[in-house]
Write a structure and sequence with these properties.
mainly alpha, 154 residues, 2 domains, 6 helices
């Protein structure tokens, strides 16, 4: 009988711990959701220019767009290797003493040029996707875009 009474307090602590964990997760989720809410929080400031256009697409169009953007795995590997090399160069520059400001500025300029060139391919794919829509599909798309603009960019 003493064995059964010893288990009860232990089980009670497990239950209390589980409830506490659930409440903590609920609070963290609520705070995170509040930060990401429309017009508030840090995420709103980091929207890419094509974000709303992409978000207004229906599921099938988004899927087709992703497939088109990521169809060439070999070029993605090359791009990743170039990015890795570029950031490795940055690390090397940062570790040198004295700091070589000119070399770091040049590297940042190269990275900025590359960053500007990447969205152009996504832009072309998006425009092609929209161009292939029927008139009715474009009207539905424009309505979704209008709703997003109204809700997000108040």
């Amino acid at each position: 009988m003493s064995a059964s009474t010893d288990l009860k307090p232990r089980n009670l602590w497990k239950i209390l711990f589980g409830i506490s964990l659930a409440l903590n997760l609920l609070i963290i989720g609520a705070l995170g959701g509040a930060m990401l809410r429309v017009g508030k929080g840090p995420m709103v400031k980091h929207r890419a220019s094509g974000y709303l256009y992409m978000r207004a697409l229906n599921f099938e169009d988004k899927k087709a767009l992703r497939q088109e953007l990521f169809k060439d795995k070999d070029s993605r590997k090359i791009i990743r290797a170039k990015e890795r090399s570029s950031y490795s160069s940055a690390v090397k520059i940062l570790r040198k003493h004295p700091f070589d400001r000119k070399a770091f500025e040049d590297l940042l300029d190269q990275q900025a040029k590359y960053s500007k060139s990447r969205p152009s391919s996504a832009r072309v794919v998006l425009i092609t996707q929209i161009e292939n829509m029927t008139k009715e599909e474009r009207l539905i798309y424009s309505k979704r875009l209008e709703d997003l603009i109204r809700n997000i960019l108040k």
